[in-house]
Amino acid sequence: MTTPTCERRLFLASLAACSARAMMAQQTTAQPFVPKQSDRPEPIEGDEAGFQSIFDGQTLNGWEGDPKYWRAADGVMTGEITPETVIKSNTFIIWRGGAPQDFELKVDYRITEGGNSGINYRSVVVPDKVTPANRFAMRGYQCDIDGRNRYTGNNYEEKGRLFLAERGEVTHVTGTRKPIVLSRIGDNQEMAQLITGGWNSIHLIVHGNMMIHNINGRLMSVTIDDDPSREPKGLIGVQVHVGPPMRVDYRNWRLRLEG
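and the corresponding structure tokens:
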């Protein structure tokens, strides 16, 4: 039989639980921002909410590529071509956690002077006619990277429409003609000086038909793609490129999905 004392204790416990849930809801519910006339845009420290790591720093779990060229240790993902493993066509390591459509991606990289790499996104795996055994050839958008910084920051569509935007450009892609330069955001060669010989930070913002490439906090290129044949979503991967021996390192992979 339930006594009045027991009923009172059950009521108080229920009230405490409801209060705790209400407090948690207040803490987790984002409050609408009410701007003041004195407010101005401001930088933030660290990442905004929602970024998740996609690399554990010690293994290639969740990624797929040829172990002859890719390895992981001490927080770093490394792609390397040696004199004994020179390739005849580009090969990638591919993140197998999904095929994002709209997202932000952040990662740090460093590359040897003669190296060539790139971060592919909204991409697909395609057959490699030059090296049929290569199961990791990709076609799609790429934030280009090279050790001499001739191409770093470009939007280059691997095995597709090729140069969509060079560093310092805002372009419009229609599919009916060459990409059109709408505006220039800096001098290509001067912007190359913003990229160091050590670690650099890439931030990609991909939303709808717009692709934004940032490096070290500076805008490098913007592509507005209205080509009806463009890929709306796809795989993320990173490349080791044909050419001389090279090495590229990546660390601190973070991804935030939208929608």
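(Above: one complete record from the training split.) The chain is about 10% helix and 40% strand.
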